Amino acid sequence: MKPAEIRSMSDEALAAELKSLQSEWRDLRFQESVGQLTATSRIRQIRKDIARIHTIRTERGMDASIRALLNEQGFTPA
Question: Could you state, in order of their start, the residue ranges of all structural domains in the chain?
Answer without folding.
Answer: 8-72
